[in-house]
From TrEMBL:
The chain crosses the membrane at residues 92-113. Gene3D superfamilies: Glutaredoxin. InterPro entries: DnaJ_C16_autophagy_reg, Thioredoxin-like_sf. This is Thioredoxin-like_fold domain-containing protein. It comes from the Eukaryota. Keywords: Membrane, Transmembrane, Transmembrane helix. It comes from Brugia pahangi (Filarial nematode worm).
Length: 274
């Protein structure tokens, strides 16, 4: 209980945690396990936190998370508990019906559909404040010029999907202490996006690009990472890239507040001056 209240809730400000609540006496929970495992296999390698809670051993925790039925799936993000509201039980009962009547022929397709719904839920509960969407050149300029007020580097991701991949959202959340993140849809053919691509010398429309700007944005990006041929960035590759470039040239550990100096970020200070 104490772990949930402190470690887990604190961690949720930098990493969302998806949790499966179940009971050994719950038949519906048993039939949901393959779907849950599919979700875990997809989300865990991307950096999503994973957890399970048993009603038998963790009843108080279920009450704390306001879980009143089993099975249940929740996400803890920014200290809030968000419940999956899909028609989970009806889907599972229908899956069981198919298994009995069709000898499991259609169960795989049904499980994939249900797992997809949970993955979409896991993506949509991540606050969009961690990864802003930029649609014009002026918006990009305003974004990278905010390093002075934020005391953070600016990370701009150019992707070939209209909506950002969940791995980008998770990375943005993880490094929110040190960086601000923005996303640009690379294949948008509007005049503004074309102008932006030309200014930043981006010529491959099928590539994924990550650009980092520091406290001298007028000089252009200080680091650039690209991958083409329809490939996707590995989560570790992105992490290593940001780790190498996560500080401003002259980071301000202290900021002026009235007549006094105030620590801009304790975690920033601890990382910069261990």
């Amino acid at each position: 209980m104490r772990i949930f209240s402190h470690a887990l809730m604190g961690r949720s400000y930098f990493q969302p945690i998806i949790i499966f609540a179940y009971s050994g006496y719950c038949q519906l929970c048993f039939h949901l396990e393959p779907i849950w495992q599919s979700v875990v296999n997809d989300l865990e390698p991307l950096g999503y936190g994973i957890g399970t809670v048993s009603a038998i051993t963790d009843g108080n925790l279920l009450e704390k998370m306001r879980i009143s039925r089993l099975p249940s799936i929740i996400v803890v993000v920014e200290g809030r508990v968000i419940h999956y509201r899909g028609s989970m039980q009806r889907k599972i009962l229908y899956s069981v019906f198919l298994i009995i009547c069709l000898k499991n022929i259609t169960n795989i397709a049904f499980a994939a559909l249900s797992a997809k719904a949970v993955r979409i839920f896991a993506r949509d509960v991540i606050p969009n404040t961690f990864l802003l969407k930029i649609t014009n050149h002026d918006g990009l300029r305003r974004f990278i010029d905010q390093w002075q007020t934020s005391n953070k580097i600016s990370v701009v991701i150019f992707g070939n999907k209209e909506n950002p991949r969940i791995r980008y959202m998770l990375t943005a959340m993880k490094y929110a202490t040190f960086a601000r993140f923005a996303y640009v849809y690379l294949n948008d053919q509007s005049t503004e996006i074309v102008k932006m691509r030309e200014a930043l010398d981006i010529t491959c429309f099928k590539c994924e690009n990550i650009l980092i700007f520091n406290d001298f944005p007028q000089k252009g990006p200080v680091a650039r990472l690209s991958i083409g041929n329809g490939q996707q960035f590995n989560i570790d590759t992105m992490g290593e890239f940001i780790e190498r470039n996560k500080y401003l040239t002259l980071p301000r550990v202290w900021i002026s507040f009235s007549k006094y100096l105030q620590l801009s970020s304790q975690s920033y200070f601890d990382d910069l001056c261990p």
